[in-house]
Amino acid sequence: MAGALAWIDKMIAMKTLYLLVPLAPLAGALAAGLAGRALGRAGAHRVTILSVLVSFLASCVVLADVLQGNVFNGGVYTWLTSGETRLEIGFLVDRLSALMMVVVTFVSLMVHVYTIGYMAEDPGYQRFFAYISLFTFSMLMLVMSNNFLQLFFGWEAVGVVSYFLIGFWYTRPSAIFASLKAFLVNRVGDFGFVLGIALILTHFGTLDYAAVFAQAPAAAGKTVELFGGAPWLLLSVICICLFVGAMGKSAQFPLHVWLPDSMEGPTPISALIHAATMVTAGIFMVARMSPLFELSPSALSVVLVIGAITAIFMGLVALTQFDIKRVIAYSTLSQLGYMTVALGASAYSAAIFHLMTHAFFKAVLFLAAGSVIIGLHHEQDMRRMGGLKKYMPWTYWTLLIGAIASAGIPPFAGFFSKDAIIEAVKLSQTPGAGFAYLAVLSCVFVTAAYTFRLVFMAFHGEPRFDAAHPPHESPAVVTVPLVLLAIPSVASGWLIGRVVFGDYFGSAIAVAPAHANIAHMSGEYHGLWSYLLHGVSAPPFWLALAGIGTAYYLYRVRTDLPKRIAIALGPLYALIERKYGFDELYQWLFAGGARLLGAGLWKGGDERTIDGILVNGSARLVGWSSGVVRLFQTGYIYQYAFAMIFGVLLIMTWFLFLAPRA
Amino acid sequence: MTTPLPDFALALPEIVLLAGACALLIFDLFARGERREGSVRFAGLVLLATAAATLFVLLGTGGALAYTFNGLYVADVMALLLKLGATLAVALALAYSRRYLHDRGLLKGELLALLLFALLGMMVMMSANSLLTLYLGLELLSLCLYSLVALNRDSPVSTEAAMKYFVLGALASGLLLYGMSMIYGATGTLTITEVARQVANLQANSAQHGFLVFGVVFLIAGLAFKLGVVPFHMWIPDVYQGAPTAVTLVIGTAPKLAAFAMAVRLLVNGLLDLAADWQQMLVILSVLSMAIGNITAIAQTNVKRMLAYSTIAHMGFMLLGLLSGVVGGNWLNAAEAYAAAMFYTVVYVLMSLGAFGMLVHLSGKGFECERLEDLKGLNRRSPWQAFIMLLLMFSLAGVPPTAGFYAKLSVLSATVAAGQIWLAVVAVLLSLVGAFYYLRVVKLMYFDDPAETAPALEGERDARVLLSANGLALLVIGIVPQPLMGLCFVAIKSL
């Protein structure tokens, strides 16, 4: 009895904690956003950092509780009930979401602290803090959801905050353009996503994860007819629709175009939203939906191929860019491609693991790049950097750690997660796996090359910046988060035995027996040490070293070569440098087409037909008849009298001769 | 053989009012002072006493149907409630326009007496149970109104309007009398309840039926003139515009209640069995009124004239309620439909009181607020008045949550319940046209710059308070329509 009571007490306490995790940042956002002027700059950052800190600590407690084997799945508030459908706010707190909560709140906390230094001069200081706290709230709602509706809410909320933040400097036309682009491209993805959710609601009659997953196996053979043609497997349609949403949010080919442009936003945002957390929402969502995706081999195949294309082709673009943030942005695209490939190969745990390590090392890379940008007075072109190592040692060393992790050199975090993915793809039998394996393997070389190209161009060699304004190391609020993030960039990889090969995720992720590549791999896992030794003898490691060596050779030894290679490759180089022309194509086809259509509808449809004929036309008709009827009102009394007599005659005629007799 | 004395107590309101009006005439002879404060106060007291007497009778009879004067006079809940409403409307009109009348030297004993006698005429109409009583009340009312319009006899516009009103009114009276004589010819009685009994028995005889319908046409012509529906509406714009605004305020409000009572007495009390016939006539009148009223109002630049056309449209809309009562000889929905029409009329009178009252209120010494441009930028000059006017215009246009919306809604639902879907559609479309000119007033008040010549507002406080109460009442009735609707329902049930 006492035990049961204690258990109930604990449940209530945990539920409060779950609520605290998302609501604390929301309260911080509201305080900084609505009362920012009264709080002042310091007040705004104090309240938001405190709120995120609370959220982070609560998340850690939740994680510890979840590690005990507790899972919470329940509603906290019924929003509305319509017929059979209940729309709820609810939490599903299991090992997957708890891990995400910790990662999100940790990176968010670091970014909050970093922002104090980065945005110190900005007039929109309080607004910025309000936005990033609001983002943290939205992301947590997305991650903790136990139903599709709340997932969609979080999905759209992070999207809209991302839109606000890309256009944070709203006086810059390029920022406005980029925010609009991100918003519109995400709309395309969200359209697929909402279609997928609608299909789920139609066919399963519920939006609750657990209920949908329970019904999914029974619906495995169900087909739907689209366009009246051949029947489609229902689950494939649902999964592909959901994945279209993930493609938008996680910037997968061909909906990737918005992410590089989103670098128009302040750098902390690039680190938090466009590298570490929001863009991984798509990865998280697919992992969360693993019970559905596992039932649809064709959807998995689509995921695999899209991920592979994104990984290799976006990595190549990174080699040709000179804007330091854009290089990292393309690197992000490429790494997201890795995660997607892992999803396609049913290696969900590897995908989430890479998501986690990537969140740390990419945040380091971005924040360090931001530090460089402040140090150089808002210079982002790597051709005007060089030799920064001695001016900004803290920034250099943390960035180097991030770069090594990103390149996949053991024993840094990136090595473990990437290696697990490559192994899983190698074992995968999903159609397209051969191509994907080739892509991710060659991408290791590309990743190492572009990462160290950045390192060598920015920090080594001759200084190319304006000597009159020498760079300076950033303040502690910037460097401390860098160091704090650099630590998990090294160490988080060592958890591989637990997270990927152990039974960490348990029931949170479902893998069909036919796709049990990870399970197969864990059979061969004999501890961290032997995994390292094995890794050193495998091709990815050597490819990474080769990539670093190539970068060294081209950007330290023969600095004239890159230009000559570019000229020698000619059109091919131009194609890659222009990002395969997707921007231009979309600009011309969709933006231009939409504008043409809009102009047509506006001029022809709205102005001429609706305004001209329907609205103004009817108004003109009424006005005209008004003028005519008015003429009857002559003011002559005999005409008035005549009208009356005429009226009597009219009614009488109607009555005596015309009316239908009952 | 002795004739038993009639029950005078039932006619107490009329008796009090008649005595009061006569006393006022004498009182005013001896009254001093330019402002005639004593006379105005006296008139106010008479109105108060009349209202008290009406309430007394209402409580005394407990709503039971009662006839007196050998069946010439009927006291039922509808008559008594309408009398209360008319007394209130006249009192409010007097309160709104006191300063206006005084500024123009029109505040004389004659005006007060004419007002009281007009009210007496309305009351007689409301309680008429005989065609003759009805006619008597109508003529008393009309003669008073003719003289009221001509009160400002030095103004050529007013005299012309009075002349037109008089000549056309005489013509309409002639038509009405002719119709009454035919009813008498067909049924051999003037008592309305008796007419109803005869009509019920006469149904089979088709020659008699034709004769009756012939009479009904003329009755309706007279009725339509009083209501001001097309094509018997021609006098309305000229009279509304030509009369001093304070008189327009009187003509446009309380007499509508009397006209409604007259319609109910004649058509519902007397000729319900001919509903299939007169309903069709009302359809024609109603549609024509809504169309011509709403469309012509758009072209007006004078607010009084615009509101005149709006009256025509509103009366057409009200007829929709009256013509939806009986469907194929079945009057299950009749009470709802007639109650909706009564509600509509009462709400319309309130709106009209407010709108014309506001015009009177905004007019100053030597300045008539009657053109649309006089309302320009009112919000800048006096925001509260502009807000009340906004409420009035929204209500007239039928924008929720004002009373005008609920009135339209209840009439429309009666129309739809009667299966006249197309009529409801036409009514809604024409109301949409009507919304234009009401909202134009709002636009002028809120979005245009005030004209430079606009004089400062000088309206007095009590009128402002009453006007505000009037405007806000529309909002309250719109939100809580049930009490008033319930009263209308009880009134119709008491017939």
List keywords for this structure.
heterodimer, A: 662 residues, mainly alpha, two-stranded antiparallel sheet, 27 helices, 4% strand, B: 495 residues
Radius of gyration of chain A, taken over Cα atoms and rounded to an integer in Å: 30 Å
Give the overall shape of chain B.
globular
Rg on CA atoms of chain B, Å: 22 Å
Overall average pLDDT of chain A: 83
Biggest sheet overview of chain A: 2 strands, antiparallel
Assembly classification? heterodimer
The average pLDDT of chain B is: 89
Strand order of the largest sheet of chain B: 1-2
Which segments of chain B are poorly predicted (pLDDT under 50) over 5 or more consecutive residues? none
Largest interface: chains, residues each: A-B, 27 and 37 residues
- As laid out across the biggest beta sheet of chain A, the strand order is 1-2
Share of β-strand residues of chain A = under 5%
Query: Class by helix and strand content of chain B?
Result: mainly alpha
Question: Helical residue percent of chain A?
Answer: over 70%
Largest sheet: number of strands, sense, barrel closure of chain B: 2 strands, antiparallel
How many domains of chain B, as an integer?
1
Please mark out the parts of chain A with pLDDT under 50 across 5 or more consecutive residues, or reply none: none
- Report the strand count of chain A: 4
* Gap between N and C termini of chain A: 83 Å
Structural class of chain A: mainly alpha
